[in-house]
Structure formats: C-alpha cells, structure tokens
Amino acid sequence: MSRRADRCLGQKPRGECPGASPCGHSPDVREETAMHDHRKLGRELDLFDTDPLIGAGLPYWLPDGAAVRHTLEEYIRTAERRAGYRHVYSPVLGKRELYEISGHWSHYSDDMFPPMDLGGEQVVLRPSLCPHHAVIYRSRSHSYRELPLRMAELGGMYRSELSGVLGGLTRVRAIQLNDAHIFCTLEQVAEEAQAALEMIRQAYQVLGITPTRYRLSLPGPGGKYVAAPEMWQRSTALLTDVLDRSGLPYEAAEGEAAFYGPKIDVQVTDGAGRESTLSTVQVDFHQPEQFNLHYIGADGAKHRPVMVHRSIIGSVERAVAHLIEQHGGAFPAWLAPTQLVVLPISEAEMSNATGLAQRCTDLGLRAEIAGPERGTLGARIREGRLVPYQAVIGAKEAANDHIALRLRDGRRLDPQPAGDILTHIDALISAHSTDLWDSSTS
Fold first, then answer.
1. Higher pLDDT, 18 or 250
2. Predicted confidence band of residue 439 (pLDDT cuts 50, 70, 90)
3. Cα distance between residue 156 and residue 176, in whole Å
4. Are 302 and 294 in contact (CB under 8 A)?
C-alpha cells in the first residue's frame, strides 16, 4: 500500500454506485474525480514507473504493480486450464525467415524492430506469438481426435512504436500478451470462437469491466492485407455468424482487420473517452496454409486445420492501465495489491497484529501492518482507504482474538472472531467476487 495513496482516489463508475454497492467505493470516495489518468495514478500508487535510462515505452513494475499483474496473470492461466488450454513457452526471438513465411515481414515490418545479425543469420524480436505457435503445432503429428488443440501463452512481444504515440501502459514497446491459438476443424470454429467470447465475458465480470461495444473488424481499402478474397469471405462469414448467434450488438468497421483475417474486437473506453481494443477473437486460414499445417482425418488423409486466435485480456499492460482508470486504484479485493491492512490501536496490540498478518499470509492473502508509528488511527484509516479491508485491533479485540472490520465502502462490522473474518474474506477472494461482503452478514 503506497504511503502516497492517502487521499481519495476512488472512481465513480458508470451508472449507479450506492454507498454499499459491490464496487467497493465509499460515499465520499465516489464523489471524487470522475476521470483518472493511469499514468498519474500508477506512479502515485507505486504501481509502475519509467526511466529514460531504460528507454521510452519500456515501463518497469514496482512491487504493488507486480502483485496486480501476477494475480491477473494467474487468473487468466487458471481460466485457460479449466477451459482445456495447454500452456507453452516460446522464444521472443525468431529468424527473419519465420516472419517472411507468416506474412508479418511483408505486411507488418514497419512495426517490427530491425533484424539483428547473429552468426550469419538475421533474427528479429517477435511482433506476435502466432508464428511460434504454428511451428510448435507443426513439430508433432496430430490426429483429428486431438482437435480442437488449444495452445496458450502469456508471452512477450515487441512493437517498434513511434515515440509520439507512447504513453504509460497503453502504448508500449515491450508487451506481455495473453495469447492463445486454437487449431481446429472448420466445423469446430464457431463453437471455439463462441467459447472465447464467453471467457471474455466472465473475465470482464470479475474485473469489473464494461465493454463499450463489439466490433467486427474487416479489411479496408489501401491496407496491407493478404490477397485471398475467398479466404476473407469464409472467415468473415464465420465470425458474423458467431456474433449473430451470440445476440451481442456489434458494428462492422473497415480497415481494422489483421493482415491475415477479420476479427471480433471488444472495445473499452477510458475516462477521457478514448476507445481501444482490449480483447479479440480472430479466424485465420492464412497461416495454416503458409506453415503447411495439417492433421490426419478419420479418412486417414491430411487435412488443413483452421487457426483461431483469441486473447481474453489482450496485453497485460493495457489491461492494467484500464483497470487503474476504471477503479481509480480501488481494485476488486481479489486483485488489490494489499487486500487487508491490520490496524493495532496501540503498541500493546502489535503482537496480535503480527500474528494476524501471518495468518493472512498463510491463507495467501496480501496483508500489511500499519502500526501506531505511522500516526493516529484516523490517519492510518485514511491512508489505507483504497485497501478493501481494514482490521482494527484494540485491547478488547486482542483479548478475545477478535477484529473490528472496516470495509472500503464505508461499512463497519461488529467485532467478530478473527478466524471467521479471514475465512470469509478468503472465500470471497478465491471466488473472484466483486462484493466486499455478503449483505446478509453486514
């Protein structure tokens, strides 16, 4: 918990935010500034920073920001495992030839870093993970019984962004991408794309994100697109059908497609009204052809798989930037860098506070102690106002192993056994709940 986070930074969310609402903002917090800049907040809350010696567009993560990022990444990995994905690691470098085959070199080289000469070969920092995953798929023989084969990676990629467009975490040169590629039959494409949209919906729900709109991104005139009209027609028809069946309202937008195929983009808007793509689902007939991918069908012959690209939260950097602005630093409890702050009223309760903090750590909760050396109880409460839970321990609580719990939204609970409180908090956090407490128990 940043010592500089002692003023009110909670964002008024879109729509209603009653004092005891699941958003976790207290009445005085929600009256504050309606717009937040993640670049300013991220530094004030000690989440991330930059340094000219490291370079523009290359932010580093401080411990609290790293905690948010790690928790977000683990949520995604767990959700992917439950959905049948297998995780891989692949190098951030590749030979130039790899990207010539994939089409990135001819269609995307302006956004790639220059090749490096190594041992008579040219290698490139990758701008995308899909060529590596195509090669991994190609390295083994596959039967139709294995499909759909879902391959996922939280991996680094690099874009040679111009200095003028760099900003905070939203436009960076080193990107950690939540990426996945599903190798499947043509008949399986619609179901896999629909399942990806459902994963996106579930992730947005627990993250407290409201999408602005769904966009069917199509090629436009003058763009560097793969010249294969029949392929574009087939993939566009598939994604249009997926959107129509889902019942989601969407808009078609020319000039927003990937160079190899159309995509469904999930758009979000920041506090300043700027719209950006956070999540995406794409259908790709091009790279399976380029890399000569195949599977053995029930007839014993070779068949070409379809490649479905999907990203649930897109880049970790952009996702965290949006979450900072969406919540004003008052993250959902499961995502908060400090989930519980222990507040002993006096030095006499410090040993109880230390024990409680250790019990939190044993449960996997992120807790810290704000002792009397940091000021009056009122000052410490104000300092920790972005922390979801504040556990106050006075003489009576210490004697009975109780804590008086204060919630970030302003509610105060009667003293209760510490074990019961921690068990309840742990259950809410494990469920990725956006509720701070069950209303029936408050």
1. 250
2. low
3. 4
4. yes
Altogether, the residues listed in the chain come to a count of 442
Determine the pLDDT at residue 304.
97
Q: Is the pLDDT at 26 greater than 50, yes or no?
A: no
406-411-414 Cα angle (round to 5)? 65
Beta bridge partners of 123: 95, 116
Amino acid 395 reads: A
Half-sphere exposure of 175 (CA within 13 A, CB side): 25
pTM: 0.87
| Distance from C-alpha of 39 to C-alpha of 228, rounded to nearest angstrom | 42
Higher pLDDT, 24 or 262: 262
In this prediction, residues 204-215 reach a mean pLDDT of 94
Please state, in angstroms and rounded to a whole number, the distance separating the CA atoms of residues 311 and 389. 32
Tokens of 336: 């908060």
Rounded CA separation 340/233 (Å): 53
C-alpha–C-alpha distance, residues 49 and 172, integer Å: 12
Q: What is the DSSP letter of 180?
A: E
Structure tokens at 215: 């966009």
* Cβ proximity of 243 and 250 under 8 Å: yes
CB atoms within 10 A of CB 86: 12
Instruction: Summarize the confidence of residues 69-85 as an average pLDDT.
Output: 97
Q: What residues does 118 pair with on adjacent strands?
A: 121
DSSP letter string, 109-136: GGGSPPPEEETTEEEEE-S-SHHHHHHH
